[in-house]
Specification:
The complex is a heterodimer. Chain A is an alpha+beta fold. Chain A is built from 20 helices and 15 strands. Chain A has two domains: 158 residues, 2-Layer Sandwich (Beta Polymerase, domain 2); 320 residues, Cytochrome-c3 Hydrogenase, chain B. Helices cover 40% and strands 18% of the residues of chain A. Chain A starts with a helix and ends with a helix. By secondary structure, chain B is an all-alpha fold. Chain B has one domain. The radius of gyration of chain B is 19 Å and the shape is globular. Classes of the chains: A alpha+beta, B mainly alpha.
Chain lengths: 556, 299
């Protein structure tokens, strides 16, 4: 009996009164419907069976059955399946037990739906606002279906961040919303005693523009990949692929093999550029600009390559539901191989000098320490987890696209610090090169796109995970009636990793703050899901500088 | 007529300090595979800053501090025997005066930081203070190694101790220590801890802009050039030819080499944390005390 059956059986036997049903549309997904009262016990049971908390998904179902649904999802990495725990609470009294006291990684997911759906999670240790602005009026829950996507409530004066109490004897150093170490608007209140960090509170989601809402109300299935791609300026392909795979799973759409290979190729090219970008930023954050400049010099060749393949340096626009939009020609193939070889050669020089540089060791070893147990507790993902001895990688554990057909290693270290994340990322660049070479070798001929001829049936569930450069991205889709998802939930890798930051910072020096936050390769925008889309009357136009200024002044 | 030599000192330092800064930037850019700004970019920077509006934090000390720092740097420049030739003012001061004036420049930065009442400036000020306390002793010992030899604290005899008496073991040790402390003297990586752009946003200078900031920048450039020139005067006496103009030229070439050294070290090191730096400084202080001890025994 495999583990999936064991989970199904254990839950059904132990909580027979609370389980309403289960289904397993494919052998890698298990949906269990439960009564809301037992959500905490059953979640704990799944964690005990070996599950890793992925993300919580709340969705408004009031118009259909008067309920608000809450889905907790768990990954089983050694056995390649995902368990989704479906439950629902009445829309007029959406109260559910919090699972955060036992599973801290669920903290943000639950807070998100307190803000967006007006749910209440009893026993949540920190029931404060997470996503909505501090001046957003009480009682308006944007993800409810009756709230229009373009609602703009009046701004309030004199609102301040509701931050935690500063510990006694400490002073506050405010970092952000604008700070050189951040690159994106977020606020950290860092509590320091002298220069030693004693605590930290986070207020983010400042660029939250509600693209999930937008995509559930305004656009169609095959427009979303392009919006999804713009969630992140660095790992856009990841989001487009994850979304497309979730829809393909929900609608049972078969993707041509060649398309899978091209997706894999683009994901790995993206990883190359992203890791080199991170390496540069990390150098900059410890005041080592030579590493910054050299890493970005190497990266530039990948940007040019991307431009030759897709027409864009970034935001490739390659992936849509059913396949990809551009093929790889023999010319491009030769080009890719040449660039990959050059990058590898250049990188070896940088790699060698970083490994041998004792000053870099001084700034990164033992810095941002977080034990393996804590990393599991916070369900950290990606290189941050792999630097702490947690051997997870979605590409190997839940293979998608063409990853089943290629051989690669997953570098893991157990230094539990910033140095470990640096090392893991460096080694992953070589693995990416390896994957790209295999993909180009094995890529079969054939079509690259399955046209969406048939209507995708409504109320099907799809969840897909994709290994972004910074960790695992989760996309969840419930199909809807109007050629668009009824619910689309994105969880970027920074979402769990950022929750572990306060513990990493504890008792480190303030001087190490930038590199510790940098070590998770934070992508705040992914977390915020920023999107600026002008959908007025479908007209497309380029705004001039003066027009932009005019708009920004008018809305002030 | 002797006063002319003081003016020559001032003119050379004021005219060339930004050039050496530009050189450091150019060399750094080359190491980083960049084109880099033009050599004379720091002049443009200063001129541009001087032409901007002077924003203040609303108190007198905030405006007074940059002037104090600039004045202190200029005063130091007046006293030093550039071109291996003591000038009119040199006899009226001793090495204690030089150390005092250099500390005064640091104190001015502290005052400005505290007057700006910015959290990042405060952090920067405390780092600046620690750096000053830990690094100035190394400078003092440099003078004392020479002073013990000639049994005088006057500037010219102390500075020219190596030139007149030749290298001793203690002087050689001191030279190595001076080079090891040089990045901290000039506030470049790995010891640009007080300014640390990525952590505390230029620290003490975070609130400064316009002419006030230009004065701080200029005084820092003067200070850097002073430390480079001091190294050449004390430890590279064989550039001495006896012809005043030629001596100055040779000395400036020496200074250029010191700046090349600064740029190369600065561009190949990350910034250290203040706690790591303190440990490093402590070793330097103990060893420089050792050098003074050796010189007492005439070694």
């Amino acid at each position: 009996m495999n583990l999936l059956e064991k989970v199904r059986k254990t839950i059904k036997e132990k909580y027979s009164g609370s389980v309403l049903g289960d289904e397993s549309p494919m052998n890698t997904r298990l949906f269990i419907d439960i009564k809301p009262e037992k959500v905490r016990e059953i979640s704990n049971e799944i964690i005990d069976l070996g599950g890793r908390y992925l993300v919580g998904i709340g969705h408004d179902n009031i118009q259909r059955d008067g309920n608000i649904g809450m889905i907790h999802s768990f990954g089983f990495d050694n056995d390649d399946f995902i368990v989704l725990l479906r439950t629902a609470v009445p829309g007029d009294n959406p109260v559910l037990d919090s699972i955060t006291p036992d599973i801290p990684g669920a903290g943000w997911s639950e807070r998100e739906f307190m803000d967006l759906l007006g749910m209440t999670f009893t026993g949540h240790p920190k029931p404060k606002r997470l996503i909505l602005a501090d001046d957003w009026p009480e009682g308006i829950y944007p993800m409810r279906k009756e709230v229009p996507y373009n609602l703009v409530p009046p701004a309030a004066e004199d609102v301040a961040y509701q931050l935690d109490e500063c510990p006694e004897g400490c002073s506050i150093i405010p970092v952000g919303p604008f700070h050189t170490a951040l690159h994106e608007p977020e606020h950290f209140a860092v509590y320091v005693d002298g220069e030693t960090i004693k605590g930290c509170d986070y207020r983010g989601f400042m660029t939250h523009r509600g693209i999930e809402k937008l995509c559930e109300t305004e656009v169609s299935y095959n427009e979303i990949p392009f919006i999804a791609e713009r969630i992140c300026g660095i790992c856009g392909s990841v989001h487009a692929t994850a979304y497309a795979q979730a829809v393909e799973m929900a609608g049972d759409i078969k993707v041509p093999v060649r398309a899978d290979y091209i997706r894999t190729l683009m994901l790995e090219i993206e990883r190359l550029h992203s890791h080199l970008l991170w390496l540069g930023v990390a150098g900059h954050l410890i005041g080592f600009d030579t590493v910054f400049m050299q890493a970005w010099r190497i990266r530039e060749h990948i940007m040019w390559l991307s431009e030759r393949i897709t027409g864009n340096r970034k935001t490739y626009g390659m992936v849509i539901v059913g396949g990809v939009r551009r093929d790889i020609t023999p010319d491009i193939r030769a080009d890719i191989l040449k660039v990959i070889n050059d990058v590898e050669k250049d990188l070896m020089v940088v790699h060698k000098s970083i490994i041998g540089d004792s000053a870099i060791h001084k700034r990164t070893k033992g810095v941002g320490y977080l034990s393996r147990e804590s990393a599991i507790k916070w369900s950290l993902v990606g290189p941050v987890a792999r630097a702490r001895g947690i051997d997870i990688d979605v590409r190997r554990d839940h293979p998608y696209a063409a990853y089943r057909d290629v051989n690669f290693d997953v570098p893991v270290t157990d230094t539990c610090d910033v140095w470990g994340t640096l090392l893991v990322r460096l080694l992953e660049i070589y693995e990416s090169n390896k994957i790209i070479r295999q993909v180009l070798d094995k890529m079969p001929d054939g079509p690259i796109l399955t046209e969406l001829d048939e209507v995708i049936p409504a109320l099907n569930y799809g969840i897909s995970v994709v290994e972004a450069p910074r960790g695992e991205s989760v996309h969840f889709v419930i199909t809807g009636e109007e050629n668009r998802p009824d619910r689309w939930r994105v969880r970027a890798p920074t979402y769990p990793n950022l929750q572990g930051i306060p513990e990493m910072l504890l008792n480190d020096q303030f001087a190490d703050f930038p590199i510790i936050v940098g070590s998770i390769d934070p992508c705040f925008s992914c977390t915020d899901r920023v999107e600026v889309v002008n959908i007025k009357s479908g007209s497309k136009g380029i705004l001039s500088k003066s027009e932009l200024e005019e708009i920004s002044r008018r809305n002030k | 007529m002797e006063i002319v030599y003081v003016l020559i000192n001032l003119v050379i330092f004021l005219a060339l300090a930004p050039l050496f800064e530009g050189m450091v930037r150019k060399v750094t850019a080359r190491v980083q595979s960049r084109m880099g700004p033009p050599l004379i970019q720091p002049y443009y920077d200063i001129i541009k800053l001087l032409g901007k509006e002077n924003l203040t934090a609303g108190n007198v000390i905030f405006n007074f501090a940059p002037m104090m720092a600039f004045a202190a740097a200029l005063s130091v420049v007046c006293f030093i025997p550039l071109g291996y030739k003591a000038n009119f003012l040199t006899q009226y001061a001793d090495v204690i005066t030089i150390i005092y004036l250099l500390v005064l420049g640091g104190v001015a930065i502290l005052l400005g930081a505290l007057a700006s009442k910015n959290t990042f400036a405060m952090v920067g000020a405390s780092r600046e203070m620690v750096t000053m306390i830990m690094v100035e002793p190394v400078l003092a010992m440099t003078f004392f190694v020479g002073a013990v030899k000639v049994k005088s604290l006057s500037i010219d005899s102390t500075v020219f101790s190596v030139m007149n008496n030749g290298f001793t073991w203690s002087a050689a040790l001191m030279m190595v220590l001076y080079l090891m402390a040089l990045q901290a003297f000039v506030g470049k990586q790995p010891f640009d801890i007080a300014e640390a752009e990525q952590e505390i946003l230029e620290g003490p200078f975070v609130e400064y802009s316009g002419p006030n900031y230009a004065l701080f920048k200029y005084s820092l450039m003067l200070k850097r050039m002073f430390y480079a020139a001091l190294f050449v005067m004390v430890f590279v006496p064989f550039l001495h030819s006896g012809i005043y103009a030629l001596d100055i030229l040779l000395q400036l070439i020496g200074v250029a080499f010191v700046f090349l050294f600064i740029a190369l070290i600065g561009s190949t090191n990350p910034r250290l944390r203040i706690d790591q730096a303190i440990r490093y400084y402590a070793v330097l202080i103990v060893m420089s005390l050792g050098a003074v001890g050796l010189s007492v025994y005439g070694i």
